[in-house]
Amino acid sequence: xxxxxxxxxxxxxxxxxxxxxxxxxxxxxxxxxxxxxxxxxxxxxxxxxxxxxxxxxxxxxxxxxxxxxxxxxxxxxxxxxxxxxxxxxxxxxxxxxxxxxxxxxxxxxxxxxxxxxxxxxxxxxxxxxxxxxxxxxxxxxxxxxxxxxxxxxxxxxxxxxxxxxxxxxxxxxxxxxxxxxxxxxxxxxxxxxxxxxxxxxxxxxxxxxxxxxxxxxxxxxxxxxxxxxxxxxxxxxxxxxxxxxxxxxxxxxxxxxxxxxxxxxxxxxxxxxxxxxxxxxxxxxxxxxxxxxxxxxxxxxxxxxxxxxxxxxxxxxxxxxxxxxxxxxxxxxxxxxxxxxxxxxxxxxxxxxxxxxxxxxxxxxxxxxxxxxxxxxxxxxxxxxxxxxxxxxxxxxxxxxxxxxxxxxxxxxxxxxxxxxxxxxxxxxxxxxxxxxxxxxxxxxxxxxxxxxxxxxxxxxxxxxxxxxxxxxxxxxxxxxxxxxxxxxxxxxxxxxxxxxxxxxxxxxxxxxxxxxxxxxxxxxxxxxx
Amino acid sequence: xxxxxxxxxxxxxxxxxxxxxxxxxxxxxxxxxxxxxxxxxxxxxxxxxxxxxxxxxxxxxxxxxxxxxxxxxxxxxxxxxxxxxxxxxxxxxxxxxxxxxxxxxxxxxxxxxxxxxxxxxxxxxxxxxxxxxxxxxxxxxxxxxxxxxxxxxxxxxxxxxxxxxxxxxxxxxxxxxxxxxxxxxxxxxxxxxxxxxxxxxxxxxxxxxxxxxxxxxxxxxxxxxxxxxxxxxxxxxxxxxxxxxxxxxxxxxxxxxxxxxxxxxxxxxxxxxxxxxxxxxxxxxxxxxxxxxxxxxxxxxxxxxxxxxxxxxxxxxxxxxxxxxxxxxxxxxxxxxxxxxxxxxxxxxxxxxxxxxxxxxxxxxxxxxxxxxxxxxxxxxxxxxxxxxxxxxxxxxxxxxxxxxxxxxxxxxxxxxxxxxxxxxxxxxxxxxxxxx
Lengths: 530, 437
Description:
The structure holds two protein chains of two kinds.
Chain A (H helix, E strand, L loop, with lengths): L1 H7 L3 H11 L6 E8 L2 E8 L5 H34 L8 H30 L5 E4 L6 H6 L2 E6 L2 E6 L28 H9 L7 E8 L5 E8 L5 H13 L8 H8 L11 E3 L2 H9 L3 E5 L5 E4 L3 H5 L9 H30 L7 H11 L6 H21 L5 H18 L5 H14 L5 H38 L2 E2 L2 E2 L9 H8 L27
Antiparallel strand pairs in A: 1-2, 2-4, 3-5, 4-5, 6-7, 7-9, 8-10, 9-10, 11-12
Helix pairs in contact in A: 3-4, 11-15, 11-16, 13-14, 13-15, 13-16
Chain B lengths: L1 H14 L11 E11 L5 E8 L20 E8 L2 H9 L5 E3 L5 E5 H6 L2 H10 L8 E5 L4 H6 L8 H16 L7 H9 L6 E8 L4 H18 L5 H18 L4 H6 L5 E11 L2 E5 L2 H10 L7 E4 L6 E17 L2 E17 L8 H30 L6 H8 L1 H11 L7 E10 L11
Parallel strand pairs in B: 1-4, 1-5, 5-6, 6-7, 12-13
Antiparallel strand pairs in B: 1-2, 2-3, 7-8, 8-9, 10-11, 11-12
Helix pairs in contact in B: 4-7, 11-12, 13-14
């Protein structure tokens, strides 16, 4: 129906009416008329998305100026002609003559205006100008992206007059680092792409774009390095993205969830990072990045479990010292999953495995605690999680209040009240502190899920239960794939080369000459000059 | 659906584990059990339980806890060990938990009257227990008394005793560091003689009685070996003093302040014959015994007297026993190879040249050889027991000959085994003193 209407448009008023009707007279739509030589040029834009100054300074002025120039040029010519004619009606003043001439000219005006508008692309001082075809393109996408429409008859030009609604580039908030670059992605799509381009200034860095979301029309950019990333991987991701039919994409997590559909796992199978240096690093390894408009988190896939344990900051520190950091991270990975479970298993089922002195000290601390150890553990973990969730949501001003209350309640008061034993506080403390080493929220949440899993198994069957849950965890991890790549690489499909390079040690950049075979066929990374 | 069923099965399979769940504060952690016999031949069981009661933090700031509150001792008498232990539950609010037991004390009485395997039977069979506690004979005292003594240095007295046994074995060569599983296998082999460590109480009642006790000890010694001269007893007393000094190094001050405190010391080894206790070694013989069984981890030897005195400290020890048969005679070649450090010398002793070193090595070798032979003879004649398990050497390496040996001589076969003792002692260095003056 609409398309029929569009084809029936005869005048600019029709188009204006069409816009008004379609937007249900939204109050933030602005309509302006510029009358030049009795011909109306309509300007339509969305006030909230557009910058008024740009419109008045550049669009309207440019149009008027270019008309004036054109007209005066014409008029000058005519006057010259008139003077040369030496007409007998000399009483008629020059102005009258001009007016006379102007009326003659009017007939040609419409053609001339079109000429001027066509010329606008060259004369206007804004870089983004485009003539659009109503039949093929969605006018409203442009209007609500902050473009200004210049409508004359049925010709529509759009000029970018976007208001700056984005924050400036700031430090990463969820992935803090001590050394290395400190810029972060923000909600601006093109800025995000720029932050990556800034780091890889190569024509091989390809950006493909897709608009997803029937209503949101969110731009999703697919970035990869043409001669490193495997074409099959790029095709695979492109196909998946093309299939998406959803009404709105509000954050990159939407895309992540849709792409992850085949994986029934708690662990994240995509890196979601706000650090351009990390994304560039990943792109150079042959991975593919997905930049989603309005989301400060760029997705990278495929991702391995190892990528969540390791940190890009390792590359900004001395390589030999990173080994200990890595080992500590692996230890923390297991501590954060298994400590409460092992504590419960040992104290309620397998007391003979605890050294006598420790057993006695545990028993002394547990005196007067009315709950079984696993209830205690659940209580503490849940109250910690409440505290953590509250801490995420609370405004910064209230943060210190919360931490004081949390520390007092979870720490001293709970022990003094005899609800939990002091050793349980220690266990939960070490568990949660270890969990904080993983800055990906999805990862932290997955670890939390498995912490509960192991705890349940441990409270049912002791150390046997812990062993069973460990087996389940390994099975679950090993059966996960990320963009068809095995998640537990390089451990589950064993690859000694990669293991040696990344697992425990970070190889020195000058000796790490090859890329990972699982990600790319273009292996040369570092060329040793003779 | 399938996965749900599997999950349910797993849950059902593991839910029975809940039966076994016990909270820590429901356990009475037994640190040591003592077994004795009463007049009627019933078992008298003493269980030392570690007290896990919370101390009041609001008390005085001095922090010194009174020793008595750290352990609780329960006693019970019944016809079997298990039933006596169960009877304790009637007194104790918590179930006895013996997986953390460090010590099993057997009184002399029970060790002589009952067969050792019968006593250990319960501890081997019980599914809760561990096999790594030490079995000890209480010499000249009852297990009840030993278990009631609290030690000032360690809050867990049983652990303290066990540590004392281990360190005495490691640094003085007395006692053994065998645990239950070793003992049981020893008891089950006919060719092996089980040996258990003995502990005694220092200052059993008061200072007067202590003297009496010392006298009786001397008497005992005299009874046991008429051949040994007074040197032995002197040595023994010396070593006793050393021992007590070692043990109570830090306690001395507390001793001075609070009078004579009772304490426990490791004394000797008890040997078993046909599963019952048959006698005790002398304290200085333990080291020789350990050397011969290649179990010596440390110890000192005193060679010579007064100005010729040389004290040497063991670095390493290696003993090989090789059985052989020559002309129908059963012979064991004993080769002892030991390294010693020289730690203390009399004024006559000089290590100026290699020859002198060799000479002193030789004297030490002769001294040790003499002692070994003396002890072997003593075991044959006086102790009447194959304490070195020579039978086992034949049993392991020459099994057929062992059978003929056993058939030929019966239980006293070991008396017909001859020994060739060869001792090699090395002094890797003469000690730290090197022309300082």
